[in-house]
Amino acid sequence: MAKDVDRIIIYTDGACDPNPGFGGWGVVLLHKGKYKELSGGEPNTTNNRMEMMAAIKGLEALKRPCTVTVHTDSQYLKNGITSWLPAWKRKNWKRKTGPLKNVDLWQRLDALVQEHEVDWRWVRGHAGDVLNERCDQIACEQVLRVKGGLGGRQERGR
C-alpha cells in the first residue's frame, strides 16, 4: 500500500430537503497539495443515501489502490462500514429486524473499500471543521440545483 505521505484525504457530506426528498452530496479530495471537489444530486432520495454516495464517489475517483482517510459527519455511514457491515454480509445483506436499507449502496461501498486501505473518521457536523463545512455547502448547493428543476441525477467535478 502507499506510504503515509501518499495518503489521500477525502471529506464527504450529504444533504436532503425534505428527508426523503431532494438530495445532494459533496466531496473534497486532497492529495499532495492538490484539491478537488465533486458533487451530485438526486430528486427522490434520503440523507443517508446522499452521505453514502459522497463516500462512494470519493473512492470511485481514485485511479489506483490508495491509502485513504475518509472524514464523514454521518454516524450511519461510519458505523455501517466499520462495525455493522461484516454481520450484514454474513446474513446475506439482511438485518435481524428485516431487510437492509440501502443495500445497493452498501454493496458498492464494500467493493470499493476492498480496493483501498481506508481509515474512517467521524467529525462532528456544523462544528467548524472547514472541509466538512465546505462539503455541506456543496451538498446543499446540489439540493437547490435539483430542486430548481434540473431534475434527474446531477454530477459535477471541478
Index terms:
158 residues, alpha/beta, 4 helices, 8 strands, globular
Textual characterization of the structure:
- 35% of the residues are buried.
- By secondary structure, the protein is of the alpha/beta class.
- The chain has one domain (4-153): Nucleotidyltransferase, domain 5.
- Helix 1 (47-60) packs parallel to helix 3.
- It has helices spanning 47-60, 75-90, 103-115, 130-150, and strands at residues 8-17, 21-31, 34-45, 67-72, 94-95, 98-99, 117-122, 154-157.
- A hairpin with a 2-residue loop joins strand 2 (21-31) and strand 3.
- The chain contains four helices and eight strands.
- It has a six-stranded mixed beta sheet with strand order 7-4-1-2-3-8. The protein has a two-stranded antiparallel ribbon with strand order 5-6.
- The model has no long low-confidence stretch (mean pLDDT 92).
TL;DR?
With 158 residues, this protein is α/β, with parallel strands linked by helices. It has helices spanning 47-60, 75-90, 103-115, 130-150; strands at 8-17, 21-31, 34-45, 67-72, 94-95, 98-99, 117-122, 154-157.
Which helices and strands appear, and what pairs or packs with what?
Blueprint: E1 8-17, E2 21-31, E3 34-45, H1 47-60, E4 67-72, H2 75-90, E5 94-95, E6 98-99, H3 103-115, E7 117-122, H4 130-150, E8 154-157
Parallel strand pairs: 1-4, 4-7
Antiparallel strand pairs: 1-2, 2-3, 3-8, 5-6
